[in-house]
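--- STAGE predict ---
source: upstream dedup step, 1 unique chain passed
mode: sequence only
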Amino acid sequence: MRIGFIGLGTMGGVAALNLIKGGHQLAVCDLDSERAKEHLALGATWADTPANAAKDADIVFTMVFGPKQIEQVVRGPYGLLSAMGPGQIWVDMTTNQPTLARALGSELAAKGVQPVDAPVTGAVDGARNGNMTQFAGGDEDTIERIRPVMELMGPMHYMGQSGSGSITKLASNQLWAIHATAMGEALVMAVKSGVELPRAWDALKIGASESWCMHHDAPSVFAGHYDPSFTLDLCQKDLGLIVEACDDAGTPAPATRLVCAQFEKALQTYGGEKGELHVVKLEEDAAGVSLRMEGDWVPHWEK
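--- STAGE serialize ---
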């Protein structure tokens, strides 16, 4: 298939590479042309605008920072609305407001485009290894038709009507933020109470306390880098969308709001450019505890 891919950031860049390696012809677009070097070396072509990336494409994928950026990609000068038409499919992988995802989808649908919202999760190693989970919302027949393409990037789950993918992604990030905060609190409490960290980790990553966060993210704390592949700025952007979604749904979500405040405190304390798991360091520093542990902690984005 001919594919336009807009947004070659942390996840988008490696996801696009998997599509190229899967045998598809890509036109790639990003604000930073340096990010496209590997893609171009593998046969992709460069597009200087979203409209040019969409020209002649069967599918256009977008994966940009957030609502403001995807709105510009779609509605802005040389955006997708100026270029896409009947028979084309737009798959937006941006972590977005569900209401905006539906609105942009409706505008493109009015031009004959089939819109799909399919935000992703699974961290950089998942994206690189073709194991990036996608939550897809939109027309089921359309999504099933492009499933073989999407599954070159990782498993895809159909979630329902337009906007359902975006809602599911926010729920996923909501749980991760709660898990990350709770992981720090539990490990710090155990260590300060006299349990050796290796033993605490071995026990807490099984049974009722087991989580993806405990398996995948705890090593970033042990190594002391707190996962710089995803920053506190990005966490707060996502948490803002999550709280907004809770408000829209009319759900109290008290734990989510407390966690949002903790991430904001971590951002103010350490800086927005610091890694997401500084929310754990906040607990370490407050308790006077270090969660450093010797081990071969290869960063997940290098696996």
